[in-house]
Amino acid sequence: MFKLLIAGDFCPQNRVQDLIEKEDYHAVFGEVIEYTSKVDYSIVNLEAPVVESPAKPIEKCGPNLKCTSKAVKALKYAGFDMVTLANNHFFDYGEAGVKDTLVACEKGGIATVGGGMNLYEASQTAYINIKGSQVAIINCCEHEFSIATDNSGGSNPLNPIQQYYAIREAKEKADYVVVIVHGGHEMYQLPSPRMKETYRFFVDAGADAVINHHQHCYSGYEVYNSKPIFYGLGNFCFDRINKCVPLWNEGFMVTLTMNEFAIDFELIPYIQGNDETGVRIIEDKDVFSKNISCLNEIISDNTKLKIEFKSFMDRTSKGYLLALEPYQNRYMKALYCKGLLPSFLTKDRLLMLANYLKCEAHIERLINSLKHNYLC
Questions:
Q1: Under CATH, domain 2-301 is a member of which superfamily?
Q2: Which pLDDT tens digit goes with each residue over 247-282?
């Protein structure tokens, strides 16, 4: 029997960055150490690449995040043994950021999975020995601007076919297979039906547990065919100044207890990024437990899950239609083609469209926006 702890997104910025640069790691992770010290292995998602050599941010939608090697030292201090690198920010500073991150983690004694200097490296399964048991860790993320290619660094992409083969191979080599995915809809506390179907498929392929993060808020979980699926851990440590929003600031770590008969688990809820900087464990779990139960009840019912997801997409559809504006009638189109009207397809707009058409979560919302507004 052994215990494995998994945490969500770590991005050292604002007040947390200041503390880490001063090497005041205890102020950030003091309460976490009690839990990492009680398990045999701990994993967290490093949401920002280490950038210490000269590097420019890549062109993309959304912020370009980065940190220094002291962030890796902070995670080591907190008791983490591995970082997942398959996320939408790993390539924010190009090849330099990828290389600096891998070097910093190797020097800092922290293992990596889900990222590499090319697609082959990024897609490799990590095998770790924990108290005599071989454990396989598979890490992937939805398609945004961080995906590795055959010739460039980045993250391992979500591809259920490729993950199926990776799980099947890992099942032959390891005693346990854990799949960690970075994806979903930001600030939405439920999985999409696509996510539920995909993660259940991973269990059917042989995964012993599936864990998701990315949404900046926690979600619920289910036990499918005796295997746990966690649909969102929330931000682990992602400081935002003057924005004490419960969705953003609350999350949980999960401890998996593996034995030959069953996989037990415990949720460890916390608050981060409020008035008191750092991760603070929640002692009174009543409100958290009630919220989780409500989310789980919806997740367990496919009809309710579809209704909630459709409602969420409808509420947020207009933002996606902005990408398709503005010229609609033939006269304006003709003037545009003759060069008499300016193009609204700026570089930023083209990047936004590319992101909408690559990322699984964005594709879902764009299609729904079109159906809701024009194709009903």
A1: Metallo-dependent phosphatases (3.60.21.10)
A2: 999 999 999 999 988 999 999 999 998 888 899 999
